[in-house]
Amino acid sequence: MSKYDVVIIGGGLGGLECGYTLAKNGLSVCILEKNPVLGGCLQTFKRRGVTFDTGFHYIGGLSEGQPLHRIFNYFNLLDLPWHKLDEEAFDDITINGETFHFANGHEQFAETLAEKFPNCANELKKYTAFLKNVGDNIFSSFEPRDHKEFFAESLFARSAYDFLNETISDSKLRDVLSGASLKMELNAEKLPLYTFAQINNSFIESAWRIKGGGHQISDSLAKSIEAFGGTIRTKANVTRLIEKDGLISAVEINGDEVIETKHVISNIHPANTMELVTESQALRKIYRNRINRLPNTYGMFTANISLKEDCVPYKNKNLYIYQKSGLWDISKYTTGQKAQCVLVSYQVPEDGKQFTRNIDLLTPMFWEEVEQWTESTVGRRGEAYEEFKKQKAEECIEIASKHIPELRGAIEHVYTSTPLSYRDYTGTKEGSAYGVQKDYSQLMTTLLSPKTPIQNLFLTGQSLNLHGILGVSMTSFFTCAEIIGMDKVALFLKE
Ligand SMILES: Cc1cc2nc3c(=O)[nH]c(=O)nc-3n(C[C@H](O)[C@H](O)[C@H](O)COP(=O)(O)OP(=O)(O)OC[C@H]3O[C@@H](n4cnc5c(N)ncnc54)[C@H](O)[C@@H]3O)c2cc1C
User: Fold this and answer.
1) Most buried of 40, 54, 112, 386, CB within 10 angstroms?
2) Residue 442 belongs to a domain
3) How many domains does the chain have?
4) How far away, in angstroms, is 61 Cα from ligand 1 center?
5) 26: domain CATH number?
6) Which residue has the least CA distance to atom 29 on ligand 1?
């Protein structure tokens, strides 16, 4: 029976990045992924020659000198076909029919918006200076404790909504500045300032798509891990963690095979991790209950649309379209609600043409909206569900069509996914898009540490610190530091 230094549950970004760092540092690593393909939210699928992204669509801060550049340099991901979005407008925010441009660079960002909000020019400067400071200090977590506490933790304990109200006096501008935030759940009572500031800042630095689909990130990481001597297994559903003398001694796969290990990292939702530990001396009921009760962020509905050739001009930007103002109310679910907003993401044309073959429309979707079909499985959810998805896709197309007049006539096929799809493919609780919901006023319970009460079981992934590609990458270093020490992990900054 093989015995590894580290077994990693889940081959999403977090699991693969941990595997990369540990294998690079000489540890024997085995990554277990339940699906036939790796990647989790980085997965793509191909239909009739067109590639579609399922989760991840764009990243920020990848230009030289910016945080993700340094991180992706370490992970050897810089050579992938990254495609920079328009610097003068990487995101267009449309609220009530009025459009505002988000420009790259802190000064340009403030100046562009100040043209529409001249009375708020100084406030915009202060706002962007604050965001820049948060971004510039992202690696302070690798420095001595005092600084780290001052920076990340103090901002996690502040309300993003209150910060906006204190900094920006114009309510319309507050909405605009929140306009690219479908990348997080805009919850006035909960969203920590750190999440809001770090994510928005990274895109102000620079914004990038990947030509050909997000799976190239997981493929590249997997290739590197195997080159370092690591093992990766797909169709390996972890069904149990076996505890002996208070430590996890082995991992059970697909209900029968057992692999021995010294350490385990779980890249899956923390509540699912707890369910895998069926018998434990070390895991108290109080910890399990705490993890199980953590609320999750909302899910996403996606309509992946393939388009007829030469019909819809490619836009090198994202469109965030809101039907009405009051963006911070979007996280409040009301029964039978219609889609109120849509993020339009264009696929970079692979043939270099000026027209795109695929756009994705994304809108938040709550678990309550699909709860009646929770007992069903992929492809067997029944007619009512198919009708519900068709209706939701139509609502999204209706919103997007007002801004892309060619869209309706160009549609070839529409493929849809809901939080149920995520629950069944990536295993995320309630199909949540961004994992555990952090709450600035309940930091002790919602901001999870990689450590668990079982000394050799660690957590990683989007439910811990910050979600998204930047956040999951940062968290992977904190998790690895628990096994090989922060000194070794921090060395990556110097490479
Ligand atoms: C619709 C959507 C759009 C997004 N857009 C962006 C974006 O544009 N930019 C950005 O930065 N971020 C975006 N994100 C967020 C980002 O994609 C995620 O934060 C990140 O990819 C999560 O990575 P992860 O490793 O934590 O989890 P996951 O990707 O969920 O990986 C977990 C893995 O574990 C596997 N697994 C689960 N249970 C088991 C088991 N028992 N045994 C073995 N394997 C198991 C799953 O199959 C999966 O592969 C988006 C997310 C969504 C949902």
Assistant:
1) 40
2) yes
3) 1
4) 20
5) 3.50.50.60
6) 40
